[in-house]
């Protein structure tokens, strides 16, 4: 949800800013802009569309500036056009500012500032920030002071970087509720919403906390609180490599990330399985494990794909650990005053660790004294830092907006937590060993799905023009039906719904005809026979069936129009395999339709607004 980047140093700022924006484009891509100081004077360029459009419009531009800021936008207030694109400037065009987040009280601030004579150009909430800074600078001639005063007036969330002609050697950075990381280079400093924009230049970083500002020059980075207390915090080392955030020969990040899954699933388990004891070891949970084992209830809160992972988690925890579980949309949980008892445990799941609703759910639970665990991918993210304990999924950077490898790693980690809890609650060692054994086989089984994807291509080609799809599954594969439908919607813009297979009779069956393909997730599990009956019902109405099945199933041969085979595993682990062909199917259909797979319209990877 908007990516921001700033650079101050000895190098030419422009290419560094553009490179950083490209790496963060998954955060928003409806418009982009930069501001640099050319010989002390602000130069600003903004464009509607992708960063490449901005880059093209900057061909031949003066590249002498050594300081600058850049922004890639996902519109919240004001349509995507050049005027609403960032950076925004004050009345005299001396101060430029970029922002990720939402200023909630912008209407009243704007009215106040306009009454004081400030001239607004855009429809954005952001613009009030730069006029507020201007207002306080007028009397203090001190940018740091003006920034702090301005921030004391706003409510909402922000990650901002400010550049001005008044103090031309400095970038001013501030954070509340939107991610911001400082990068320490050799005679250069950077700041960005996301470490992926910095890793090319430095591995030494410092994640700003809410309520902190930073003043960057080419040789220093001073971090302070808004109350002027200097913050001493050691820098951290980035643990991922540049190549992890590049496409590596794949046409799209999403495809690369789908194909990474044998490795990422393995990484999620690495060092965490105790084969001889039939259990798992999760260091991040060690100090809360008793609390978790004795929890009368566990509440999952998450959004999007992570919410689907939570649904699978519910089935796992209830079946094996016998703990009652509820799964909440984080956005609903936060506002409906949920009943939480003191020994309940809340588990938030988030790939990015920055989703605003999930973070708000975490804070809501914590404010009531509830223990909150986080299952996150991004190390050092807000959710990871604010949780009482947690487990990283170690899937590596996920850039494609549609989540794929994070989902299977979330499921793997949920299986590890299930195993740990179940064993502590009396599951026999042999049963634990079987789960460990099956977990270890997963990477190879995923690989085997990739050995032959011709059938998926064929199906994608056949159905690429359809306007609706229905996805059906039961038990552990009901959340997979939801996830399969979400993938298709997100990247191909085909309407798709996921349903529990038996619920089809209570509505969706009315829609079924030859133009409504039905995808059944039907591995040979406890629900197989029932799902077969549901398939019969669809066929009786001339529906066309695509079935995800295990091995060759002769009866399925006669019924399903198309079959995609995935290897068999334990029921609880089946979603990790059955979702893979659905990711590929959505991907192929989107490519056939000429859609922008990595940057689907209107979506963003990290939704940092509520
Ligand atoms: C956005 C992304 C989804 C993601 C969801 C939750 O909608 O496009 O892919 O599942 O946010 O994100 P999180 O980072 O919290 O898992």
Write a brief structural summary.
The protein is α/β, with parallel strands linked by helices and 610 residues long. It has 19 helices and 26 strands. The radius of gyration is 25 Å and the shape is globular.
Could you characterize the architecture of this molecule?
36% of the residues lie in helices and 21% in strands. The protein has 610 residues and is α/β, with parallel strands linked by helices. The model has no long low-confidence stretch (mean pLDDT 93). Helix 7 (261-269) runs parallel beside helix 13 (405-424), helix 7 (261-269) packs antiparallel against helix 14 and helix 13 (405-424) packs antiparallel against helix 14 (429-451). The chain is built from 19 helices and 26 strands. It has an eight-stranded antiparallel sheet, with helices on one face. Strands 5-6-7-8-12-13 form a six-stranded antiparallel sheet, covered by helices on one side. It is globular, with a radius of gyration of 25 Å. Bound molecules: 6-O-phosphono-alpha-D-glucopyranose (G6P).
């Amino acid at each position: 949800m908007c990516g921001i980047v700033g650079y101050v140093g000895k190098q030419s700022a422009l290419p560094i800013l553009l490179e950083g924006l490209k790496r963060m484009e998954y955060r928003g891509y409806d418009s982009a802009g930069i501001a640099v100081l050319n010989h002390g004077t602000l130069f600003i360029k903004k464009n509607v569309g992708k960063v490449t459009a901005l880059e093209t419009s900057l061909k031949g531009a003066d590249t002498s500036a050594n300081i600058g800021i850049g922004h890639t936008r996902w519109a919240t207030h004001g349509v995507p056009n050049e005027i609403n694109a960032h950076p925004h400037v004050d009345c005299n065009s001396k101060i430029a500012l970029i922002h990720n987040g939402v200023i909630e009280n912008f209407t009243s601030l704007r009215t106040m500032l306009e009454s004081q004579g400030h001239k607004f150009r855009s429809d954005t909430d952001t613009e009030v920030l730069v006029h507020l800074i201007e207002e306080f600078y007028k009397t203090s001639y001190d940018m740091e002071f003006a920034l702090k005063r301005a921030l004391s007036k706003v409510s909402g969330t922000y990650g901002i970087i400010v550049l001005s002609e008044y103090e031309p050697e400095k970038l001013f950075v501030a954070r509340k509720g939107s991610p911001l990381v400082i990068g320490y280079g050799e005679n250069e400093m950077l700041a960005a919403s996301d470490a992926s924009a910095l890793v090319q230049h430095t591995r030494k970083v410092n994640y700003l906390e809410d309520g902190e500002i930073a003043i960057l020059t080419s040789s220093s980075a001073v971090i302070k609180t808004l109350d002027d207390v200097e913050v001493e915090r050691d820098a951290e080392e980035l643990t991922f490599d540049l190549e992890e955030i590049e496409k590596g020969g794949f046409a799209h990040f999403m495809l690369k990330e789908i194909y990474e899954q044998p490795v990422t699933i393995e990484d999620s388990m690495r060092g965490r399985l105790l084969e001889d004891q039939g259990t798992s070891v999760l260091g991040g949970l060690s100090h809360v494990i008793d609390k978790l084992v004795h929890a009368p209830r566990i509440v999952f809160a998450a959004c999007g794909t992570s919410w689907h992972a939570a649904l699978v988690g519910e089935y796992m925890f209830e079946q094996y650990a016998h703990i009652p579980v509820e799964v909440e949309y984080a956005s609903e949980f936060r506002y409906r005053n949920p009943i939480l008892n003191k020994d309940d445990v809340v588990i938030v799941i988030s790939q990015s660790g920055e989703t605003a609703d999930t973070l708000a759910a975490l804070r809501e639970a914590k404010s009531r004294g509830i223990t909150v665990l986080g299952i996150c991918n991004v190390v050092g993210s807000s959710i990871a830092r604010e949780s009482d304990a947690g487990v990283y999924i170690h899937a590596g950077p996920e850039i494609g907006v549609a989540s794929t490898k994070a989902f299977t790693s979330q499921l793997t980690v949920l299986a590890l937590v299930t195993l740990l809890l179940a064993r502590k609650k009396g599951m026999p060692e042999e049963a634990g060993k079987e789960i460990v054994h099956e977990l270890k086989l997963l990477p190879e089984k995923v690989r085997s799905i990739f050995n032959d994807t011709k059938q998926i291509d064929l199906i994608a080609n056949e159905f690429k023009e359809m306007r609706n799809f229905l996805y059906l599954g039961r038990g552990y594969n009901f959340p997979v039906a939801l996830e399969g439908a979400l993938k298709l919607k997100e990247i191909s813009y085909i309407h798709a719904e996921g349903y529990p297979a038996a619920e089809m009779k209570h509505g969706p069956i009315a829609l079924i005809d030859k133009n409504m393909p039905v995808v059944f997730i039907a591995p040979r599990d406890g629900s197989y026979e029932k799902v077969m009956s549901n398939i019969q019902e669809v066929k009786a109405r001339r529906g066309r069936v695509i079935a995800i099945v295990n091995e060759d199933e002769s009866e399925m041969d006669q019924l399903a129009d198309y079959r995609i085979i995935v290897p068999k595993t334990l029921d609880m682990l089946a979603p990790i395999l059955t979702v893979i062909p659905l990711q590929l199917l959505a991907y192929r259909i989107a490519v056939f339709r000429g859609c922008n797979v990595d940057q689907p319209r209107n979506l963003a990877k990290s939704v940092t607004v509520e």
